[in-house]
Every structure is written in C-alpha cells, then in structure tokens.
Amino acid sequence: MAKAPSPRLRCAIYTRKSTDEGLDKDFNSLDAQREACAAYVMSQRHEGWVLHPDPYDDGGCTGGNMERPGLQQLLDDVKAGLVDIVVVYKVDRLTRSLTDFARIVEVLDDAGASFVSVTQEFNTTNSMGRLTLNVLLSFAQFEREVISERIRDKVAASKAKGMWMGGPVPLGYRVEHRKLIVAPEEASVVSEIMQRYLACDTVTELLAEMEQDGIVTARRAQRDGSIRGGVPFRRDGLISLLSNRIYVGEIVHKGASYRGEHEGIIDRDLFDQVQAKLASQPKPRIQSTRHRIVSMLAGMLYDDTGKPMVPTHTRNHGRRYRYYVTRPSEVGSGVATSLPAPDLEAAVRTALAGYLSDSGMLRKLASDLPTHQLAALITHAGYLADGIVSASPSDLREALQSLGFTATINRDGVSASICQSALLQGASIDADDGHRIPIEIPYTFENHGHEQRLRLDPLRSEQARLDEQLLDLLARAFNARDQLLAMDEVHASSTSATEIRHLRRIARVSYLDPVIIKSFLDGTQPRDLTSRKLWRIGTLPIAWHEQKFALGFSTN
C-alpha cells in the first residue's frame, strides 16, 4: 500500500540584524541567515515543507522588543493562517525577551503553527522543545541585560574621565572627532545670554529681550538632512542653558560633576553668579499640560491692512473660546478682524500638509532640479507633511516658524506662504533666494450670529502613496551613476571590485523607464512595488516595456 503524502507545510523565514551596518552589501548577514534557513527547509521536503515566498526581514532592529515591521508582518500572516512553520537561524534572532517570546508562542499556538531554529535542533511542538527554548531565552535575556549594564558602566567611566558621550550639541560648540570644540560665534552668544540674565529681573524678561533681538536656538543638521533649531528659546530650554555646567568645562553624570576634556566658555565667577540668581528666583506655578493652550499662529498672522493679529480668548459658561484679532490699539477707527482660532489653525494644518504631500506641486516648484535632488525634496516634504498632520500645537508652531510661514487674512480668503529656501535647505539643497511659495487655504467665511467661521473645502479622497524608501533608493541610484561616470581609470583601479559592483547594482535603478521613475515621484507605482523588491531583482530588463511588466505596471 502506497504511503500517504506528507501534508504541505508553508515555512516562513525570519531574519534580523541588530544594526544596519553592512546591509547595503550585495551579500549581507540577512542574506546569510536566509540562505541557511532555506537550505534547511529544502532538506525537509520529504516532510512536506515548502518555502513561503515572502521575506520577513528586520535590518537594524533590536531583539529586545517587538516593534519590528518584519516581525509584525510575520505574526499577522501567522494569524491569517498563511504560515505553518516559522524558521529562524537562531532563537535570539526572533527575540531576546522571555515576555515577548511568550507572546509569540501564544500567537503560534492559537494559529496551530510551530517554530524551528536551524542551528538549535528543536521546535515548539512538544513540551521538551519549549523547555529548551525557555532555557536558551533566559540566557539571551541575561546577555542583553549584561550588555546594557556594560554600556551604562562604560558611559559612567567615560564621563568620569571628562569625555562627552553624545546627545544634542550645546549652543557654543561643534563636534570634531567626537569631542566638543568651541564655536567662537555661538560661544559669544552664550556669554551674552549669561551676562544679560544678570541684568534682567527674571527669566521671562530675558526671554522677551532675546526674542525681540532675534537670538534663537542653535541650528543643527540631522541625519536625514533636515535642519532643526533656529527658533526662539522656550523657558525650559533657556533655564537649561543657564544652568549647563558644560559651559564651565565640566561633564555631569547622575548629579556628579567631573572636569571635562573640552574647553569652557564661561568664567567660573560669572557662572556661579548666574546659578545663585537662578536659585533665588521664585519657581513659576506649574500649569497642567491638559490646560496649557498654545496659539500656534501667534506672530504669523496679519489682517488685510498689514496689521498683526494676536491671540486672545473669552470665557462663557465656563468654556474658553480662542480667537485671533487685530490689536485694538492698531485698529483706530477701522473694523477689527476677528476669527476663531481652532478653525483657522485646522485650515492651516490641512492646507500645508496637503501641499507638502503633493508631489506634482513640488515637481512644478523645483522643475529645474536634478532627479536625485527632486527625489530628496519630495522625501523631505513627505516627512514634514506626516509630522504636521500628527504634531502637537507647540511642535507645529516650531515647524511653521522653521518654514517661515506667514498668512494675511483678506475678506475673500487667506493669502499664506512659506519660504522656499527654508524648504529646500531642509532637503540639503542649496538655496539663498527670497522667493516665497504660496499656499492655498481652501475655505470661505460664513457668518454665524455675531461670529465669523471658516468653512473648509472637502479634502481630496485619494492621496498619492509616496514611498520614502523607494525615493531614497532612487536618489542613491543617481548618485551612484554620477560616481561611475566620473570615475577615471586611476580611480577605478584603486576601487575595490566589491564597491564597483555595489555602485553598478544601485545605479541600474537610474536607467529605469522615465515613466516608472515619474511614478515613484508621484507615488503612483504599484502598491506591492517596494525598494526591497526592486533591490532584490537580479537582472532588470533593458527594454522599457519589459521593465514595466517585470515591476507590475500596466502595459496597456
């Protein structure tokens, strides 16, 4: 009698690497893990094991928590009944936490799925396998805790030697070779702030003087190319600056001060006077965040005669109503403009996020930019748009200030604009012109009794699906192509073959059909076309119509 065939078991491979170092190589750690797991699955074909086609990878993700996109997608597919066996290279690739492991096992049990480690011969289908896993994960969690303790001890020892261990760079310094170096222009600003505080009665008075004189926080470039800072100081930030012992050449760790390797900016006598005055100042009454109201458009609004509009509020039956109004002293015999603040702030938020997420408008704005810079601009604007949609009022106010936002309230609508150079510089694109970008705020006035309200036009129902990772890959592709085209024989001979292969593999994306590239910029590419899928395609067709077919575009 013939033996019944083994049931078909779909095996999903999960890979993880704690850092993103080396992930851009042709064959990286994730590829090595996947190859070993795939070979193991192939060796179990007689048991009915088949490889699941979708990859589940998490590059640059810690195993100490479950906030990993690849893992979450894997668990979702397990719950949906699409996976029967989860295959990993080692148990700690899945998790280093006993608590998280218990959650994962619960998901697997509920779905009738099991778990296999390639280098540790066991699975979770029996009690002995679970016991072994728990023992191994206990060691994995212990190792993670020991590593954390070592890092904390190293930081404490380094700070005791006066070493700066990173974090936001204080105003007055720049970083060279991981050390703080005095920046003379900023250092003079710090010294001036300290001296002016001694001449002022309160921190609030100093804040007002600094804002009037245009003294702002330090502008720092971020890893994503954006610029943070350059905004007026807040009270907490100013007090932190005034009490920062870095400025007298010290490093502080858990309340203890150590002589730092860096040079101080402020004399000890001046610093001690500032600290004595801070200690003598009465502490301000702390207001609950729940009741703190931020007028995010303050200082950015003007009426149709050019007069500034300021925030104000009234109370009626215990309820607070906020408005933006023309100052009574500025009106004279004219009619003051007054608008409800929440409606206007919502209109600004919606309009600005809509503009920044509209790749078509951005392409018109920067039509003369090279493709890789245009891709960088669209990516940066997309990040801004996402942040604006969900930002708190205070964070949104900072974003508006960094973009140089202003608006004029006319009888027939709002004339708003942002600074073009601020937007371009945020994407690391040089721009020093004074051109302003008009922002359309689609609303009309409606009278409700004695009050004017704003009626917003409906939002577009369909937004472009911009993929920041695709745009980043596109920008890197054009950069790689430029490097290859500029490479002479001498340079080529001194460049490793691996690096040249890597540049060629990235650069091929820049030779895609212009229609495909345009779809990346518009966000209209096929929904399943990701940077990971594009990167893993071994050979891209030369013919444009074949490229469209291979990448899932309509060929009609």
UniProtKB/TrEMBL annotation:
Residues of the Resolvase/invertase-type recombinase catalytic domain: 10-162
Cited InterPro entries: DNA_bind_recomb_sf, DNA_bind_recombinase_dom, Resolv_N, Resolvase-like_N_sf, SSR_resolvase
Domain Recombinase: 170-285
GO terms for MF: DNA binding; DNA strand exchange activity
UniProt cross-references to Pfam families, sorted A to Z: Recombinase, Resolvase
CDD domains associated with the record: SR_ResInv
Entry-linked PANTHER family: DNA RECOMBINASE-RELATED (PTHR30461:SF23), DNA-INVERTASE FROM LAMBDOID PROPHAGE (PTHR30461)
The name this protein goes by in its record: Recombinase family protein
Lineage: Bacteria, Pseudomonadati, Pseudomonadota, Alphaproteobacteria, Sphingomonadales
